[in-house]
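During the second year of the project, the team shifted from modelling isolated chains to modelling whole assemblies. The rationale, set out in the original proposal, was that interfaces cannot be judged from single-chain predictions alone. As a representative example for this report, we include one of the complexes processed in the last quarter. Its constituent sequences, exactly as entered into the pipeline, are reproduced here:
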Amino acid sequence: MSDTDTKSETGTRKVGWKPRGENTILGTRVPRIDGVEKASGAAKYAADVNTPGTLYVRLLTSDRPHAKVKKLNIKKAETVPGVKLVHIIKDVDSELHWDGDMIAAVAAERIEQAMEGVKAIEIEYAELPVVANEPLPVWVDDRDLAAAEKAKRTKSLGKRETKEFDAALKAAAHTHKGFYGIPVISHMCMEPHGSHCEWKDKENLLAHVSTQWTSGIPGQLAQVAGVDAANVTVICNYIGGGFGSKFAAGEWGLVCAVMAQKAGRPIRLVLDRATELKTPGTRPSAFAEITVGADADGNVTCWDSHQWGTSGPGGGTISSGVLPYVFTKIKNYRRKTTGISTDTGPYQAWRAPDHPQAAALTHTALDDLAAKMGMDSLEFFKKNLKLTDRAALYADELAIGAKIMDWKARWHPQGKGEKKNGMQQGLGLALHTWGGAANVSAVSLRVNPDGTVESTSATQDLGTGTRTCIAVILAETFGIPLSAVKVHIGSSKFPNAGGSGGSTTIGGISGPNRRAALDALWKIFDLVAKRYKVDAASLSAKSEKIYSGDKEVCTWKQACALLGPMPLETQSKGKKNDGLTSQGVGGIQMADVSVDTETGVVRMNKMLCVQDCGTIIDLQTAESQVLGGLIMGISYSLSEERIIDKATGRYINADLENYKLPRIGDVGELIAEFYQPDEQYHKGVVGLGEPPVISTGAAISNAVANAIGVRVPVLPMTPKRVLEALKGAKT
Amino acid sequence: MNSFEYASPRNETEAVELLNDPDLPGKSADTAVLAGGTDLVSLLQHGLVAPRRVVDLKHVSTMSGVRAVEDGVVIGALTTLEDMADSPLLAPYASVQQIISGVHAIQIQSRGTLGGDLCHLPNCWYFRNGYGLLGFRDGKSLVEAGDNRYHAIFGNRGPAKFVSASRFAPALLAWAARVRVIGPRPGQEEWLPLANFYVTPKLASQGVTVLKPGQLISHVWLPASASTQSASYEVLQLRGLDWPQAAASVCLEFEGGFVRDARIVLGHVAPVPWVATAAGRFLAGQSINEETAEAAGQAAVEAATPLSGNEYKVSIARAAVKRALLRAVGQWEESDL
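Output from the structure prediction step:
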């Protein structure tokens, strides 16, 4: 008996999911219950809130990579028509650390007036000597380790070597040495970071915030505004993307609250697209020199990597322990990590922190070793699964994937595939892993005497279908239609919920909702048993009726009427060891691409993810998670990249024309295949947000190498990089 | 974005008058022409232009639509890409149609106009980030010192190193199109060969076309298509909103299966649409096949002068020429593997 099971007069009632075959809605394809609102615009995001009297904000941001504010005069800006408040964020002598660093904010009646106000601010910079290369400041290229070292911008982030490494490398029958890299990308949420703050009176703030952590924001706003956290209400009904960058209120969020307080008017501060790309956060770069060795049969025996990269001024890269990725049991290894600090935008957790980079460095190097040995990549990876934590699972997933992709027929040695009009086809694969344990969230559940059910929690819907999944769980548990369930989320005044990040929300809401619902159901069963003189242990709820065995006892509504005038309320909180949720997944991806060797353009033919994720609540939202992950992965594999201009040190492509994101025509056929044997169903719910974005880069890079016979060492594989790799191979 | 006056003329005369209003404080350069707005609105938002008056041509009906004339067709500068695609009169101009379908963004197809495209300012990121048309700071070319991956590989020895942004100019130029320029005085008009329309500026103030303040393109004339075989090939990285990495348009005249005249124009490789004279000359007297198309592509890029970071564009331009030629004679199909 677990700590959540309860005892009734008729014996132990066990918390758990239903036996697999008995679900009627759970695990099926359920469209989002708020889909129409989202698609029609009825759903209001923080960026939509526009109450009477609202002032709009535009920011003055630094156009220098590293400077001090020498002079700052806001007088003229204050006199621009429509401007109501100019707020200084970084005053004279403040240091600015990147192009886009926030300096001042102008609030005006209209956004255009705010823009005029920004233009009217007089500022002089004292450029700080980034590195002497007069007269232009030099940006330290995070790819160029030697330059970074010369500029004294590096720091060692760890070294580790196993005893037998040298001997193992010497003994290896086959070795491969290569350079691989994956640059910085920016958070690029469809709904930019921002909020709308309205002071109801001097003490009470109502803030609509685009956030991944509704419960975590009030304290941050209260502190900066000098009021009690109890006086702050944060609302986040919908959020247009967060991906790790919206846990904190952010400098812009704090400024919004303070400006609203100062102005005595509601303020909307939503970042413009350029600032959105430059400031809220980036995914660190990672580059590495890697040597791998294997015995004569292709068993990997040793790994050597020196990795470096940047996370902005902080000077980190991906953590030192993540290489070699997935194949963690490679016995002999040598690892070295160097961080580089650059005058560029700061780090924020990006969907599956460190994992996409680690996969892109590890599984490409391993694939090149396989190619050098003349081995089929699939056979090579299969042979080495013993070096992973989930050998059997990966083997099953690879087998499923190989069948779907027609691997045997379509795979060929690197560069030896079919060619037509300059196009060459290739196949690649990679593996991934993630935790996905539940976060700690609390739920208050109410069953009304009319049979409707309400779930209330401060959790948020990142766009992944949180409302829908809660409704599915409750509809399944009570045997009622989705329309009888109301889900209240997204207010800091609701019971606390964990932040939505790291694939923790589905577990975080599934456990407490199922538990609270079972608790309520069992209480109702006891009432039914008493009233209808049946054994409570024999009762079940389905199709809006209560059954005793096969026999109908009463309707759901009749059962709920037994509650009397008051609703029944139950609560549950947190992650418990009752089998409802779990953690730890694998997953594999396979890519089929065509590369135009004359133009360097890579076209996606097909992209597959075979994914395990324990119990599936809603198959449709689960599939959407995977498809979204694949698209995001295709993006950073082929086109998405922050470009820092070496002449100015500026983020030169901070716009949606040059920060290239794929459109629907660019992604090819996408397949989400779930690995769902019974043991996965019985495992419990595991989060699915991060896994499908992880191995895409490595799989596509391997497919491109398989197509053209040359490794394009750095992502994204743009026409420029593909053609340069082809040219390098010729000379 | 600055505050501006909005004017909505109903005919060409009014449009020219509003653009050259002596009562408007400041210079006539302080007016801007609004067609589809796909470029102008972005320029306004980034403060790259700050007109006192925006003249919206939407209601100048004589500037929309396609009509047949004795020696060809005339396209109003306000005709949208979508309307051009739908016009049976333009169906024979394959190279033009291929450009329209290459503009994958349906918003631009339905909103963007031919005249707007021809006058589209460069997408150079130094220009768009406020370093002026030529991308200079402290007397030095940022393009040269910085990231020039998308910049010119021809005609880049002077201070201008951006690439001409027009999608249609190469195709229209290969067709020997003419443009009707009106203004700056009411009633003033001139038909110019498109070949004389674009300029490579030495100074930022010179702009990218011969248009003087207060002038605009009202119409484009194309000669009768007759026996000309045409095609365009744009190398696009993405199938959504994206600019070509390089492009080529060709117009071919044949005599007994051999090329009598070949006009080949490259796009997005130079500050102006770049006429590949050598490649055209090479093809005279040849038939078009894989081998001659490849050789013509090579001839077209022989004199390229790539910058520090854009040598790859030479290969792309070469492929574009080859593929446009093959496409013009029905020998090119996109391959799926």
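The longest helix of chain A spans residues 505-532. Chain A touches chain B through 48 residues (CB under 8 Å).
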